[in-house]
Hints:
The protein is mainly beta and 282 residues long. It is built from two helices and 23 strands.
Amino acid sequence: MEHVRIADDRIEVVILPEVGARLHRLRVDGHDLLRTPPDPADHVRDPFFWGAHVMAPWCNRIEASAVSVGSRRVALEANFPDGSAIHGQVYARPWERVEEGRFLIRGGGDGWPWEYEVGLHVVIVDGSVRIEQTLTNLAIDPMPAGIGLHPWFRRPLLVAIRGDLVHAVNTASEPQPEPVLGPFDLREMGEMAGDLDATWTRLTDVPVELRWPTLGLGTQMQITASMRYVVAASPIHLDAIAVEPQTHAPQGLRRMLNGEPGGLVMLHPGEVLRLTVEMAFA
């Protein structure tokens, strides 16, 4: 399995092009910050709970059922135990390495009937990791679109998600988000309650801050996109927390078709959806 290493004197990123161009490792000052498996093949056996992977052409969950969108028919199979179609199509497929830190993959024309291209560009500069993602519609008609990044950050971890509204569940989310209350109010840095799986919106300019108290490390996460959401999951059986920047709310296809807020956007032929995540470490 090919390992692509991008590094400076402080930060190291290792990417696996053959398995979704996923971030297998993010190491800062010699400390692993991602949930990195001892065997890279674990990414193949269990693709959803290690490292960090790109989600496209949708994020989170959509229904694994047939539905018409314009003249096209979406017919996706379930790929998760809850029966949903989760995290898109490119998280474990082989990508092409096109130049230093830059990767591409084409998909679609199947259960997702539109053809598309996804790009990933990882750069380390001035104590920061910048992860640029693009999703381009290659079809001849408009395509629903969403893109995101799904990292698992190792515990012990303190988390701040500075958003005023939340979808408290991702499996069957309500159309409208609610004000953050109780364990969903993460606007101040602290420990995240166990077994949350929610989506935050109405975010501040720097919406996420993470701190590893035993390592003396922290990062602020900047998210640049036309629409910004942050999903976070804290399963009690896992030694990591997922903090996922993305461009839409859960059930994005349903939201788009029903006119609910936070749906997938419609990309015109040749149009590009962009998401940039930058983490500065201190």
